[in-house]
Design a protein that fits this description.
- By secondary structure, the protein is of the alpha+beta class.
- The chain has 11 helices and 11 strands.
- The mean pLDDT is 81.
């Protein structure tokens, strides 16, 4: 430890340089991790907040709820095979649409209309305002107030329908496919209604039946499926767990995979840089190490110094990178999907340190094979 500190104080410039490089790379890793996490949450918040186990959707929808359409016959088949003592069902419709404030036709906002039945377990939790009293009143995500300045009593226009809806309440920040959610009646969120403008006689077709289990899993945590869809004889519907629905949100797995690959490569590159720097520094100090060995200082002591230096440099770089990331997060506008996740940060930091120490082992090996006479003579 003493040797490591003395060397770093003797040549601070080279260690400041490598620490700066590590700080910049780790800043990029943490920043991308926060963007990736924020973007993933923005895609799935609606589904995370449903407090449900699964959905029943159309087989042809490929587990994408915006492409699912359940008829009244489908819903009747589901209710026949559902054990009402073990499961709670909630009807839901969802449609992606565009709105604008009544006072500004040019301010277009992409949103997700979510239809629900009053009193069902998927009913939004109101944090400000009152519950809607008719189908022309809606509950909207808090994000619309923070990002777009909407207030209670404001009227919004559905572009395709040119229909005015009044905001009576705000719920917790909720998004689907990165679009803020507007909770309305099943009728208003009907996809065919939005597309054609024809007033439907019923809320059908629905997007999904949300399933909430009323009994706990068994001791072995085997997932409990309270509805046997096959027994209904209806091959047009399927039971899909919520994680599968999330994974099949359009673009979700591609985003997660892309960001994950980028972050993984950056961690690997950071470790390679640390290893190369430490190897070069070790080679430059061959003569000094040779003299130390000739004086009786063993290789293990010198190798320990190299590993300590690697830990100090990596730790300082990680701390600086984390500081820059937190500062950036505080300065970014709230509309950007930037969310801090300490588990991600801890995993990335641990990976960088572990792989950096593995890279430093090449320098340790070089220390072990230094011949004092050759190093001094060279």
């Amino acid at each position: 430890m003493f040797l490591a500190y003395k060397e770093m104080r003797h040549s601070p410039a080279r260690y400041v340089l490598i620490t700066t490089v590590i700080a910049l790379i780790t800043y990029l890793v943490f920043f991308l991790a926060s963007l990736a996490y924020g973007l993933a949450i923005a895609n799935r918040t609606l589904l995370d907040q449903l407090d449900s186990d699964a959905m029943i959707i159309s087989t042809f929808a490929n587990q994408n709820i915006t492409g699912s359409q359940l008829s009244e016959d489908d819903v009747n088949d589901i209710e026949k095979v559902a054990d009402k003592s073990k499961v709670d069902l909630a009807k839901m419709s969802i449609a992606l649409t565009v709105i604008h404030p009544e006072s500004d036709e040019d301010s277009k906002i992409n949103t997700a209309l979510v239809g629900y039945e009053s009193g069902s377990f998927i009913e939004p939790v109101i944090i400000d305002g009152r519950a809607p009293e008719n189908t022309s009143e809606v509950v909207v995500s808090e994000g619309l107030r923070k990002d777009h300045g909407f207030q209670l009593g404001d009227r919004i226009i559905l572009d395709r329908r040119e229909e005015a809806l009044t905001i009576t309440a705000f719920t917790t920040p909720t998004t689907y496919a990165t679009a803020p959610v507007i909770y309305t009646s099943l009728m208003r969120a009907n996809q065919q209604y939005l597309a054609t403008g024809n007033e439907p006689d019923s809320p059908y077709p629905l997007s999904a039946i949300v399933v909430k289990s009323l009994v706990p899993q068994d001791a072995n945590n085997v997932p409990f499926a309270p509805i046997d869809i096959e027994s209904s004889g209806n091959k047009d519907i399927e039971y899909s767990p919520i994680p599968d629905i999330i994974w099949n949100i359009p673009g979700y797995k591609e985003q997660v995979g892309t960001f994950g690959l980028m972050i993984g490569f950056l961690v690997f590159i950071c470790a390679i840089i640390i290893g190369i720097f430490m190897f070069i520094i070790t080679m430059q100090k061959q003569i000094s190490f040779g003299i130390m060995k000739a004086q009786g200082i063993n290789s293990a002591f010198i190798a320990h110094s190299v590993l300590v230096q690697t830990m100090i440099v990596a730790g300082a770089g990680l701390s600086a990178g984390l500081g820059f990331t937190l500062l950036s997060g505080a300065l970014l506008p709230p509309s950007l999907p930037f969310l801090i996740n300490w588990w991600f940060y801890g995993g990335a930091a641990a990976s960088i340190v572990i792989v950096a120490l593995m890279g430093a082992l090449f320098s340790v090996r070089q220390v072990m094979i230094i011949d004092p006479l050759e190093a001094i003579a060279g």
